[in-house]
Amino acid sequence: MALARKPTRSSPRSSTSEAGRPVDLRLLAPAAAAWACAAIAVQGGRWIGLVLGLGVVAGSLGLLRRSWTVCAVGVAMAGAAGVAGMWAAALNHSLPAEWAREKALIEVTAEVTSDARQWQARGYQPAAAVLAIELRQVTAHGEVWQGRLPAQLRASGEMAAQLDQPVGAAITFLAIGRPPDAADRSVGTLVLRSEITSVESPGPVARLANSFRAGLRQAMAHSPPEQAGLVPSLVVGDISHLPEQVKADFKTTGLTHLTAVSGTNLTLMLVFTLGLARQAGVRGWWLRGMAVLVAAAFIVVCRAEPSVLRAAAMGLIAMAATGLAHDRARGLRALSLAVLVLVLIDPWLSRSWGFALSVTATAGILWWAGRWQTAMRGWAPGWLAESVAVPLAAQLATQPIVTALSGQVSVVGLAANLFAGPFVGPVTILGLAAGLISLVSPGLAGPVGWAAGWCVQPIVLVAHLAASAPAAAWSWRSTPATLVLLGVACVICAALVMPRVLPRRWLVAAFAVLLVIGAFRAPPQAGWPGEWVVIACDVGQGGAQLIRAAPGRAILVDTGPDPDALRACLASAGVSRISVLVLTHSHADHVGGLPAIAGEIPVEMVLVGSDAPAASDLEGLPETTRTSAGDTIELGPLRWTTIAAGPSARASPLADGSSAGEDAGQNDASIVGLIETGELRILVTGDLEVAGQQAVVSSGADIRADVLVVPHHGSPRQDPEFIDAVHARIALVQVGENNGYGHPASSALTMLRGSGATVFRTDQQGAIAVSADGGSAVTQR
């Protein structure tokens, strides 16, 4: 007689897989709690007490109710607060931290703990570098402190090159202290104020790692620049010689993760090496031992920093989705445990975007990739199923975070990763071999490096080809609402769409066709008014305005300092042709973005005033046209009128210091132009200062406008009569976030609002678009 079994309810602490096996999620809550609480507690002060108190309350409630999951959450919260509190006490209450807050001049002896991050001079921004160091001895105010605490050393201009120091070396220098950034595990930021002197050479392990990296770069010396820069990037995350164009194309195509020390690199390297080992008959514990050895080598050559250890942990866990441990339950438990341990070891990881990307990518691979591979193997070979499923799962899981950082959704990312992925393993192995051989025989390392270079060439070609698609990356507004919408869309796609598409060959083909179509035609920018008239681009501390002339065509006034920011603005607005390019004056924060235009987008006319940019900046553009007051240009319904285009006869006093480091004569030589659309009048002003504004008012020109691009980024040097004469409804202030100039000045904002204008700022609201009737403005934040 068969006995009927009484149905039981599913435990809330687990979920059930499609095979009927429970997926244990009990570690998920403590890991998430530790992550969130660590991110709060590293701010120090009362936040530590708040998190610690909540943890104690949660733990106590869990004990009273015998709910071990709640108890574990409380313990994780209290642990995160405790670790963060100990770090905060060590960092914030030390003498070096006190001196940094005082901005004291200090003498430092420190050990170099990582390679310097270098930024080349760009526009008005000088070259800069940041070096991670560990303080050993600090002297200030006649006192001497000794110990070991982390800090950041920064330098700019000509001094930036000095930060190229070997890891492990002890150095001494003078610096000015500054408080640390909130997201840095550091006692402070030290600004270099002297020559750096080396007082001790690196130890044997650091010297070996340095020799490996230098040997790898030398092994690539005879390869083309793109190959020579990319191989070290893929092998050890060394992007010091990576060409800017390759960086830009990798960003557009979603391949940037390959050039960072990430879990993806280790995962692909393990897949390749262990695949070869299987072919050679290696099985069982020998295979696991080889995985450990490969991971150990990865950590040594990439520097044993927290970010590298994090990447190694995530890479090993991700192997659960690539065929070594095809078990979601074990993989999710391991991921949760890794998150919990890592944020307790280093609470500052909780505020790292790289950490968030690693965790979400690994979770996506674990949760979706295995089932998707199984679904595709009904019609596709295993290697193709894996090549599609893994990057697709990672992209869907990380897309909201990537978009929050970049403001883009890469349409070609999946295809680029699909075609580039098979070459990453061979490149990594050959690069690793070249570095190892270089330690013994640099001459023999050359041919191996040459082979690695030609293995990486297909990746370069994939990046260039995919990035050249007209709509390779779609712009997406990075607001909380739009990011939540994107996240929901990604989850729906992964949970409902992909399980129905991937098992059917013809649906996969249709999906691929849709991606190809999407790469050649982007949809309208979400949230932009369909008939926008003017857009103040978000280009940082600089100016760039688009005035719509026709579908896909615009007048562009200035280019801002950053070519990439200008490219993003043009793409989001759907502008593919510049009818008139107006360069108000020659300052780099108004012309530094010219490389995004010259040779890339058709330009029909270039207008300049008395302060024209240098000829070298204008290469690839049509011959310039000098404009002067009274000149007009008709562009269909648009009419451009030059109000002023030369230096003012009046002096611009600089007694208030607001224009320190700048030439007020050049500012007052800015082109001032009025654009009439039939419905709106827009006044663009460059960096016009008081004397220039007074000269415009005295000229008697009709400068009434609905939209005013506020002169000189809202500096305090504004003339009340000029502001009143314009009497704009909308005032657009283009200004960089946390800029060092104090822009926009509170006096300028008060003056603008007093005239009846509604003020919009790019530092707070991102790019700003004004509708055709001037009745609304849409922002990107």
UniProtKB/TrEMBL annotation:
<dbReference type="Pfam" id="PF00753">
    <property type="entry name" value="Lactamase_B"/>
</dbReference>
<dbReference type="GO" id="GO:0030420">
    <property type="term" value="P:establishment of competence for transformation"/>
</dbReference>
<feature type="transmembrane region" description="Helical">
    <location>
        <begin position="332"/>
        <end position="349"/>
    </location>
</feature>
<keyword id="KW-0812">Transmembrane</keyword>
<feature type="transmembrane region" description="Helical">
    <location>
        <begin position="480"/>
        <end position="499"/>
    </location>
</feature>
<feature type="transmembrane region" description="Helical">
    <location>
        <begin position="414"/>
        <end position="439"/>
    </location>
</feature>
<feature type="transmembrane region" description="Helical">
    <location>
        <begin position="23"/>
        <end position="41"/>
    </location>
</feature>
<dbReference type="GO" id="GO:0005886">
    <property type="term" value="C:plasma membrane"/>
</dbReference>
<dbReference type="InterPro" id="IPR004797">
    <property type="entry name" value="Competence_ComEC/Rec2"/>
</dbReference>
<keyword id="KW-0472">Membrane</keyword>
<keyword id="KW-1133">Transmembrane helix</keyword>
<feature type="transmembrane region" description="Helical">
    <location>
        <begin position="451"/>
        <end position="474"/>
    </location>
</feature>
<dbReference type="Pfam" id="PF03772">
    <property type="entry name" value="Competence"/>
</dbReference>
<dbReference type="InterPro" id="IPR036866">
    <property type="entry name" value="RibonucZ/Hydroxyglut_hydro"/>
</dbReference>
<feature type="transmembrane region" description="Helical">
    <location>
        <begin position="47"/>
        <end position="64"/>
    </location>
</feature>
<feature type="transmembrane region" description="Helical">
    <location>
        <begin position="307"/>
        <end position="325"/>
    </location>
</feature>
<keyword id="KW-1003">Cell membrane</keyword>
<dbReference type="InterPro" id="IPR052159">
    <property type="entry name" value="Competence_DNA_uptake"/>
</dbReference>
<protein>
    <submittedName>
        <fullName>ComEC/Rec2 family competence protein</fullName>
    </submittedName>
</protein>
<dbReference type="InterPro" id="IPR035681">
    <property type="entry name" value="ComA-like_MBL"/>
</dbReference>
<dbReference type="InterPro" id="IPR001279">
    <property type="entry name" value="Metallo-B-lactamas"/>
</dbReference>
<feature type="transmembrane region" description="Helical">
    <location>
        <begin position="71"/>
        <end position="90"/>
    </location>
</feature>
<feature type="domain" description="Metallo-beta-lactamase">
    <location>
        <begin position="541"/>
        <end position="713"/>
    </location>
</feature>
<feature type="transmembrane region" description="Helical">
    <location>
        <begin position="255"/>
        <end position="277"/>
    </location>
</feature>
<feature type="transmembrane region" description="Helical">
    <location>
        <begin position="355"/>
        <end position="370"/>
    </location>
</feature>
<dbReference type="InterPro" id="IPR004477">
    <property type="entry name" value="ComEC_N"/>
</dbReference>
<feature type="transmembrane region" description="Helical">
    <location>
        <begin position="284"/>
        <end position="301"/>
    </location>
</feature>
